[in-house]
Write a structure and sequence with these properties.
With 447 residues, this protein is α/β, with parallel strands linked by helices. It has 18 helices and 13 strands. The protein binds zinc ion.
């Protein structure tokens, strides 16, 4: 077949191309130069002989017939019987998918199949029903999937069009707007996030306790990531001394309510985000109302009674808490997953004496430190929402800024924990004093 002219490469370009193809900037020995030239070929797309009769290229019809002979096709009734058991894979183009698809289907356009399938569907033993509009692209896709090790994949004969004509179930998928596709493009490129993950983020509700040093970076990154609802609890006003670390606020906002300043900043950053302001002091009377609507709480509080109050309320509401704390040049992050990992009381059974636990106002803090710790909290919150990776539940991450070290420690659930232990009484939410002890359900009967 016709091969277009080869573009001569300068030796520097050739070496760069070799390194690129080798995947690393290391050794390039053994990489055939012809391969590079082939990829850098400037003529019409082509090259290679696909093995048609006597060198003739097979027609599309022949290629499809060959693929169909090698794969399994199922009809509508058989495919519908697999709904709920098998994973349905829609390989049509995004605009076709957006107009309607089979409920629960995973969408990977045929052109992205080889690149994305292993990231999106890593389990190669899972049964797959693959479909396109009419059954041709899906037949070719199933053949490719078999070559990649997905041996339990079948193609839906007649595709989505026949499925729909037969009156079988289909839905119009929720899709991102063009502006959202552009804004979250770097998320969409990650198979672990993708459209479905971005929709989860947009549907998620995160409560930030405090619009201060930890809450500022956490709120900024959560808003930028497209977490659809951010609640902010704070009853302070912006002071010039906050601006050394509380990056949600600025000079124009001095004297403003912190929740209002935070809302302005976050709304300007991302109009997708609904900011709910809670201009109040979190207390026993309101904590359940405030937190129970949220999927995750990011705790940036700096006092022990509030931490214990939040802990007990979060256990009751079964809301995970991403805890962060800072002291001078050191920070700590962990996740309290109710009844799955330790709670705050397992971790800190009782508050330290006041003289051993000075606040930032007393002890000082380097301004970048809450930026790092709050960003880690935002990352953990997003992992919880997306079900990604391993969270810090059961582990404490300690950051030492002077040594530049991150250390992780195991934190175990305390079987005797008065809040989450097996023998813990019913949790009662009440104001805590300096001792922060849990409240008994009823006062012991006098004898
Ligand atoms: Zn506990």
């Amino acid at each position: 077949m016709a091969v277009g002219p080869l573009v001569p490469l300068s030796s520097a370009e050739e070496q760069a191309a070799l390194r690129w193809l080798a995947g690393v900037a290391g050794s390039v020995t053994g990489m055939p130069t012809e391969l590079v030239r082939f990829y850098c070929h400037a003529g019409p797309a082509g090259g290679g002989n696909f093995g048609g009769e006597e060198g003739r290229m097979p027609s599309f019809r022949e290629l499809l017939a060959k693929a169909k002979a090698e794969i399994v096709e199922v009809d509508g009734p058989e495919a519908e019987a697999r709904l709920g058991g098998a994973t349905f894979l829609d390989v049509r183009e995004p605009d076709e998918f957006q107009q309607g698809t089979i409920p629960g289907a995973v969408h990977i356009a045929r052109g992205n199949l080889e690149v994305q399938i292993e990231g999106r569907l890593p389990d190669k033993d899972v049964p797959l029903v693959v479909y396109c509009a009419g059954g041709a692209r899906s037949a070719l896709a199933v053949k490719t999937l078999a070559e990649l090790g997905y041996l339990d994949a079948v193609s839906l004969a007649g595709g989505f069009n026949r499925w729909k004509d037969e009156g079988r179930p289909w839905v119009t998928p929720r899709t991102l707007t063009p502006d959202q596709r552009n804004r979250y493009q770097r998320h969409l490129l990650l198979p672990e996030v993708g459209d479905a993950g971005q929709q989860k983020l947009l549907d998620a509700k995160v409560l930030l306790l405090g619009a201060g040093g930890l809450g500022s970076p956490a709120a900024l990154y959560l808003a930028a990531a497209g977490v659809g609802t951010l609640g902010i609890v704070d009853m302070d006003v912006v002071d010039a001394s906050n601006l050394q670390r509380q990056v949600l606020h600025n000079m124009d906002r001095i004297g403003d309510r912190k929740v209002e300043s935070a809302k302005k900043t976050l709304s300007l950053l991302n109009p997708d985000v609904k900011v709910i302001t809670h201009d109040l002091r979190l207390g026993a009377a309101n904590v359940m109302d405030v937190i129970s609507d949220y999927d995750v709480v990011v705790d940036g509080t700096d006092n022990f009674p509030t931490r214990y109050l939040l802990n007990d309320a979060a256990l009751l509401a079964k809301v995970p808490v991403v805890h962060g704390s800072i002291f001078r040049f050191e920070g700590q992050v962990t996740v309290f997953a109710p009844y799955e990992g330790p709670c705050y009381r397992c971790f800190v059974p009782e508050p330290p004496p006041a003289e051993l636990a000075p606040s930032c106002a007393e002890a000082g803090v380097l301004g970048v430190l809450p930026g790092i710790v709050g960003s880690l909290q935002a990352m953990e919150a997003i992992k919880i929402i997306l079900g990604l990776g391993e969270t810090l539940a059961g582990r404490l991450l300690a950051y030492d800024a002077l040594e530049t070290t991150f250390r992780t420690f195991r934190v175990h659930r305390d079987p005797a924990c008065p809040a989450c232990g097996a023998d813990a009484g019913e949790i009662v939410i009440a104001e805590y004093d300096e001792l922060c002890m849990p409240h008994p359900k009823e006062a012991p009967a006098a004898v």
